[in-house]
C-alpha cells in the first residue's frame, strides 16, 4: 500500500467515525461528549475513565480504539487530543473502592467523575455544559444528560475513541509509576493484567496494596 493509499484510508476511516457526532449536531446538540474507560479487567490498579468534547473542525487523522493502536501512536496522539479538544475530564477509582462496590459500579463512578470534570472545564472556559453523551457500551442513569450507549463505540465514534486514548495513556502511566513502587509484578509491562509474570510475582511475594482482592479470591 502506498503512502497516498494509506492516507486515503485514514481519511475514509476518519469520516466514518465523525458520522454520529455530525448527526447529533444536525439534531441541535452542540457539546457532544465521548466517554470511555480502561482497566475493568486487570488484577491491580485503578479503573480510569475519560470524557472528551471535540470541536466540529477537529481534523487529527489516526484516532481509533486505543486497543488497536500501538503504545507509541497513543503517546503521540495523547497531547494532541488534549490540546485540540474543547474540554476533557478524567475520572479514576482505585482498587479499594473497586473491592467495596464491584467493578461495574466503580466503572460508572469513574465515568461520572470524568463527565463532572469535563463540565467544570467547559464552565471554566465560559462554555455551556455537555448536552449529549456517547458512552461506549454503557448508560448511567444518575447522569441527567441525554445519552446513548454505543456498542463498540470506541471503534465507531471519534469522541469515544479519543476518550479511550486519554484513559489508556493515563492509566498506563500510572501503572508504570506503580511498577517502580511495587517491583516484582511486571506492572510496567502487563499494566496489572493477569499475565504469567504477574501471577508469578504474586506467588513469590504475595499481593501489594494496589491489588484487587475480589479479583484474586482463587489465589489468596
UniProtKB/TrEMBL annotation:
Gene3D superfamilies: Ribonuclease H-like superfamily/Ribonuclease H (3.30.420.10). Its EC number is 3.1.26.4. One of its GO terms (cellular component) is cytoplasm. It catalyses: Endonucleolytic cleavage to 5'-phosphomonoester. Manganese or magnesium. Binds 1 divalent metal ion per monomer in the absence of substrate. May bind a second metal ion after substrate binding. One of its GO terms (biological process) is mismatch repair. It is an enzyme of class 3 (hydrolase). InterPro entries: RNase_HII, RNase_HII/HIII, RNase_HII/HIII_dom, RNaseH-like_sf, RNaseH_sf. Keywords: Cytoplasm, Endonuclease, Hydrolase, Manganese, Metal-binding, Nuclease. Residues 30-220 form the RNase H type-2 domain. A divalent metal cation binds at residues 36-37, 136. Its main location: cytoplasm. Its cofactor is Mg(2+); Mn(2+). One of its GO terms (molecular function) is RNA binding. It is found in: Cytoplasm. The keyword Metal-binding applies. Endonuclease that specifically degrades the RNA of RNA-DNA hybrids. Belongs to the RNase HII family. This is Ribonuclease HII. The gene is rnhB.
